[in-house]
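Write out this protein's structure.
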Amino acid sequence: MQNGKVDIGTRGEVFRHAQDLLHSGQIRDCIHMKIKKERGWYVAECSKDFARRQKARNVQTDPTGYGGPSWYSWPECPNDCEFYERSEDFTKSALAKEIHDAISTKPLDRVVSLCQRFPVFAEELAKRGRDRQGIEVQDEYDVQYLFRAMLRIEFDDVRPEEPTPSKAGGGAKLDFLLKNERIGIEIKKTRDSLRDAQIGEELVVDIERYAAHPDCSSLVCFVYDPEKLLDNSSALERDLSRKREGIDVRVVIVR
């Protein structure tokens, strides 16, 4: 969530807000409450079409309908719903078991999820009451510092600055290696001198180099772009995220 708006293009954010609605009592832990994709964005809705709809004030809409939905709403469950059946596991019933299992158990997806949540993490650490100085992200090293803390919550063995085999005249270091999970992590933060073309060129070189690492079968390239310096982040993610040269690459760009 950025600027108080839920990113409805991300299933995880829509589900997390649905959980907030569940805790507030606006929706119920019913097996018929589902998160599904419609026309490029995700919605929370009752599969029995019995819940009322409440206009969303925390979603960016577009009156033209080109840049997003012209209207968006959240469900509101009636207390006397005749279709209500309590879910034993709201996550499984809302997302479907196979999606829940993938999110919960696949280490690569867990790392990607941490990348997507980083802006929230950074925003919270920047806030600190009682006249105490918060932690502000100013450069790439700050991103690495904070992201390592996030990784340590999820994974036991997080190895920083793992050397890669020398190639084409020199070696390099992965920012982090999850050796047990065989996942390498490379972190970048945009700046005036590091925009679309430069980021793309660096990532291509990194991917080629890190593919030779003996303990790295997957690579997450996390790009933090809080100033929105990238003009076409979606294209970078789409063009570079793929399985290649024996390595599964995920490029994740967040703002």
